[in-house]
Write a structure and sequence with these properties.
Length: about 350
């Protein structure tokens, strides 16, 4: 396992008919999103996006040398009580994007140097994203497409998009149904997430390639490789809930080690997006040093070697603000498109 830092220092087949009686995720709303009905995610059949940027805070084989081309989708099927992206998952910030605009954004990210396009939390609009990706690929997009999700999605909903997705970055938030019920109202999350990750790991073998700079200038020991196919399972450690992390690591070791990478994240930040005083928050503090040491020991105990873990950094400077043209700190992110302004001119970023 390798440590990494958020500041990057070292580091259709798809059919729109899925919206007609929507069961894309475990909420099973069975609503007709074409006719104005809305399910838990609150979204119509239209794809809405919040921002697109070159982001340098992802895992090393995702960030590479050029940065990851993140595209943040509006809406969410989980809405965790501690969501750091609450402005888009709950507060609905975003603007509609058709397939042509989605493809434009992908191509603009690639021309700005992105190693990949990294689609964040799009489980509720898989058919629209698949349509946009296919158009982008037809128009010349050549970098890998990453699916960065909560894993609260059905394999049969993902399968029609498998021709245009290359790498999966699913969360595995918890295997504890009572935690899943309490903090995101989805007691079936563990079952659905494990079956989605099984499908992801089985559908794309793990493969690396030199980063873009190495491909154009020649390989060098200083230039990283990037993941071009496969699955990186992310797990966020929740302070005071280390038994949940232990269960996730044990399952990873038993089920996916050697076939997927693990990304252990320790950036939990006590964000309170829901102003209700009784809103459940799993912890009101950061991961502390003793907990960090304990999870590092767990990695050893379970013999997990392939993957990444974050350096322990407490603070909220990295939290996004999607009301800004550049939602992230400027050393982490270069904005390309924003829901308020459209494509961002260099001087606006
Ligand atoms: S994608 Fe949205 S409407 Fe469809 S089942 Fe999930 S929450 Fe319900």
């Amino acid at each position: 396992m390798r440590e990494y830092h958020r500041d990057g220092a070292f580091q259709a087949k798809g059919s729109g008919n899925a919206y007609a009686s929507c069961r894309l995720c475990g909420r099973d709303c069975s609503v007709d999103r074409f006719s104005g009905e809305r399910g838990f995610c609150g979204e119509s059949q239209s794809l809405r996006l919040a921002s697109a940027s070159i982001h340098r805070g992802e895992e090393p084989p995702v960030t590479g040398e050029g940065g990851s081309g993140t595209i943040f989708v509006t809406g969410c099927t989980l809405r965790c009580s501690f969501c750091q992206n609450w402005q888009i998952s709950r507060a609905s910030m975003g603007a509609e994007a058709d397939a042509a605009l989605f493809a434009d954004i992908c191509l603009r990210l690639e021309s700005a140097g992105a190693e990949n396009v990294n689609i964040v939390t799009g489980s509720h609009v898989i058919p629209a994203i698949a349509e946009g990706l296919r158009e982008a690929k037809l128009r010349g997009l050549s970098v890998p497409a990453l699916w960065n999700s909560s894993a609260y999605e059905r394999p049969e909903a993902l399968d029609p998009a498998s021709d245009c997705l290359d790498v999966f970055l699913p969360d595995l938030k918890t295997l504890d149904a009572s935690l899943a019920a309490r903090f995101f109202g989805a007691p079936d999350y563990p079952e659905l997430a494990v079956s989605a990750i099984d499908w992801m790991v089985g559908s794309k073998p793990l493969r690396y390639a030199p980063c873009r700079k190495a491909r154009t200038e020649g390989a060098s020991a200083d230039l990283p490789e990037i993941v071009v196919s496969g699955t990186i399972v992310r797990h966020l450690v929740i302070p005071g809930r280390l038994e949940s992390t232990r269960a996730v690591l044990a399952l990873f070791a038993e089920r996916w080690a050697g076939k997927a990478l693990l990304s252990l994240m320790t950036q939990y930040t006590p964000v309170r997006p829901d102003s209700r005083a009784d809103a459940a928050l799993p912890a009101d503090r950061y991961v502390n040093g003793a907990e960090y040491a304990e999870v590092m020991d767990m990695l050893q105990e379970y013999g997990i070697e392939d993957g990444y873990y974050q350096e322990l950094e407490n603070g909220d400077e990295w939290l996004p603000d999607f009301g800004r043209t550049n939602p992230f700190a400027s050393d982490l992110s270069v904005p390309i498109w924003h829901w308020k302004t459209g494509f961002v001119r260099e001087k606006d970023g």
